[in-house]
Specification:
The structure is a single chain. The protein has 326 residues and is of the alpha/beta class. It has two domains: 142 residues, NAD(P)-binding Rossmann-like Domain (Rossmann fold, 3-Layer(aba) Sandwich); 153 residues, Dihydrodipicolinate Reductase, domain 2 (2-Layer Sandwich), CATH 3.30.360.10. The protein is 31% helix and 25% strand. Helix 4 runs parallel beside helix 5, helix 5 packs antiparallel against helix 10 and helix 8 crosses helix 10.
């Protein structure tokens, strides 16, 4: 079995619990080094997580001969540079979502993967969680009857840090993140929708900025027709009043209705005539574990794998089309 030795570029919050520890929980996988520009923070992370080496320079980590796979957990604007460099050096790449801050960078990453033969994965890990596998099972078994339409409702209030224009989070800076909270969160939902209903055929949408707290859109509407015939309408509001919170996807069929959430993991509810069934499959301690396990097992086959780079590329393009981004 091929040993997969990881280097992590950008050991920030997402790597503390969601992803980082999972790499060492999969047989034949180990994190050998981490990198952060702040050397003290890089060393601190390495010590706390029992990782042998640390760097404050990404090139040094990528050039480490013992590392054969690189996990990039930095803001999206830097994904392409690191990913392309790593693939050109013969390293497999796992990059945080969204794939990049703009479609052009995504395309360059995808083409580099094809040219070098190096696998490129993007962290749309929800497809591998038992919660969403159950959702897919209900739909594919036609327990809802014939599909009518799907509604996405996501409403949240601004976060406290959103009100300070002098120190906005990087997620609200379109040149860094790609386009605000819609790009940061909505991408997960759009990835799930493609997984459930196939590639998008027609995409219409529009974004607005209602609160004026930052430059990115805080209100987004979309209608998407998928190749399966599914019609999805969605509304994403990141400017709601403080007490308002809604994280809901509803699938309407001729014989039943299905409700589930994307981030809250509320019970999956399956409604039929006079009956309601609920399901709540457990999540792993490290939310990316099942995705990482599948990815490592793919890499251990020592051949070009069926990665999700192409679908991740489409997700960025879909978001661009929804808000009219050039």
């Amino acid at each position: 079995m091929r040993q997969i030795n990881w280097g992590i570029i950008g050991c920030g919050n997402v790597t503390e619990l969601k992803s980082g520890p999972a790499f060492n929980k999969v047989h034949g996988s180990q994190v050998l080094a981490v990198m952060r520009r702040n050397s003290e923070k890089a060393e601190d992370y390495a010590v706390r997580h029992h990782i042998p080496s640390w760097y404050d320079n990404a090139d040094e980590l990528i050039n480490d001969p013992d590392i054969n796979a690189v996990y990039i957990a930095t803001p999206p604007s830097s994904h392409a540079g690191y990913a392309i460099h790593a693939m050109e050096k013969g390293k497999a790449v796992y990059v945080e979502k969204p794939m990049a801050a703009n479609y052009s960078d995504c395309l360059n990453m995808y083409n580099t993967s094809l040219q070098t033969g190096m696998p490129l994965y993007v962290a749309y890990y929800r497809r591998y969680l038992p919660y969403f596998i159950k959702v897919k099972e209900i739909i594919e078994k036609k327990l809802l009857g014939d599909l009518l339409y799907v509604q996405v409702d996501f409403h949240v209030a601004p976060r406290p840090e959103d009100f300070n224009p002098e120190s906005l989070p990087w997620r609200l800076k379109p040149d860094v993140s790609g386009g605000g909270y819609f790009y940061d969160l909505g991408c997960h939902q759009l990835d799930l929708l493609e997984w459930l209903f196939g590639k998008p055929d027609e995409i219409k949408g529009r974004g607005f900025n209602r609160r004026g707290l930052y430059k990115a859109e805080d209100l987004v509407f979309a209608t998407i027709l998928y190749e399966s015939g599914a019609v999805v309408t969605g509304q994403w509001c990141f400017a709601a009043r403080e007490s308002e919170h809604k994280d809901l996807i509803t699938v309407f069929g001729t014989e039943g209705t299905l409700e589930f959430s994307t981030f809250d993991f509320t019970p999956i509810r399956h409604f039929t005539s006079g009956e309601t069934q609920e399901y709540l499959p457990p999540n792993p301690e490290n939310i990316q574990y099942w995705f990482i396990k599948n990815m490592v097992e793919d890499l251990q086959r020592e051949k070009q794998t069926d990665t999700n780079g192409e679908s991740a590329l489409r997700t960025n393009l879909t978001m661009d089309k929804i808000i009219g981004k050039n």
